[in-house]
Write a structure and sequence with these properties.
about 280 residues; mainly alpha; 12 helices; about 70% helix
Length: about 280
């Protein structure tokens, strides 16, 4: 019990330090001119990552932002936010960090715009928008499709992928596995982490079959959820740490805002293996 407590507190402190360092970088970069669209959206997505990190601190038990009398041990809630953070990081890397030619970047960007356009159209259609409003979205989608079909990189893709993109079935040209591989991470492990987090987000059987065992799933302190939350915070720290370093590369000099503790959080700690034991699920 004491060992689990110590590991949890250690992971919470390290995550808190990483969030503080990331937030300092975000504030330092705010207002700086963006030399490219990739830089601009890096600042947007990095802000989202920081906000997500702060939200985690507001619900993580024993965080400095949580009053002791309001402690609530809910791995499902934390898992939802951590999955959101990881997905945001994947987008951040895909659009802003990955080194690609301009044609490919334009292709990725216009596919994002097409996907956004079609999703908004569907959303407003469900909310009862007029035919004139929907027609405006259709016209925008037509223009975006023309941009894609005239893009050299898009034209080099296989026909099935092109068709799926033009139907806005995909927001990303790369699969999640391919994107993770480009980052140099272990695809199988990350896929396993994603499945575990998703089981909580969607209330799959894996997420609730053991409710009640040892106090799980009831909001009360228990060893299993404490281990899960500790792992989740470590995972979130890992991706926020990577994003912070990449922001410094995109905006040189932004590290000047960091305190000694902030520098330690980003550069003085080894990268975690994000390990979680099979039997703890």
């Amino acid at each position: 019990m004491a060992l689990i407590d110590n590991k949890y507190i250690e992971s919470l402190i390290l995550f808190d330090s990483t969030v503080s360092a990331a937030t300092a970088i975000s504030q330092e970069v705010a207002g700086r001119p963006s030399p490219t669209s990739a830089h601009y959206y890096a600042s947007v997505l990095f802000t989202r990552l920081c906000t997500n990190g702060v939200s985690l601190l507001y619900i993580a038990p024993r965080s400095r932002l949580v009053k002791p009398e309001f402690e609530h041990w809910d791995f499902a809630a934390i898992a939802s936010l951590v999955r959101n953070l990881i997905e945001c990081y994947l987008t951040f890397y895909y659009l802003c960090v990955d080194t690609i030619a301009q044609d490919e970047w334009d292709c990725r960007w216009n596919l994002f715009n097409l996907h956004d356009c079609q999703r908004r159209r569907k959303l407003f259609e469900h909310f009862g928008s007029s035919q004139e409003e929907l027609a405006a979205w259709d016209e925008q989608a037509k223009d975006l499709k023309e941009r894609l079909t005239s893009n050299p990189f898009f034209c080099s893709l296989n026909r099935q992928l092109q068709a799926d993109c033009l139907k806005a079935k995909k927001a990303f040209i790369l699969s999640r596995d391919d994107l993770i591989a480009r980052m140099g991470l272990n695809v199988s492990k990350i896929r396993g982490y994603y499945l575990l987090l998703s089981s909580q987000v969607h209330s799959y059987p894996l997420g609730f079959y053991r409710t009640g065992e040892g106090g799980r799933g009831r909001g009360i302190e228990n060893d299993v959820e404490k281990r899960h939350i500790e792992w989740a915070l470590t995972s979130a720290k890992f991706f926020l740490q990577r994003a912070s370093k990449e922001m410094i590369s995109l905006f040189p000099g932004s590290e000047s805002c960091l305190s000694a503790q902030g520098r330690e959080a980003l550069f003085g700690l080894p990268e975690d293996d994000l390990g979680i034991t099979r039997t703890s699920c």
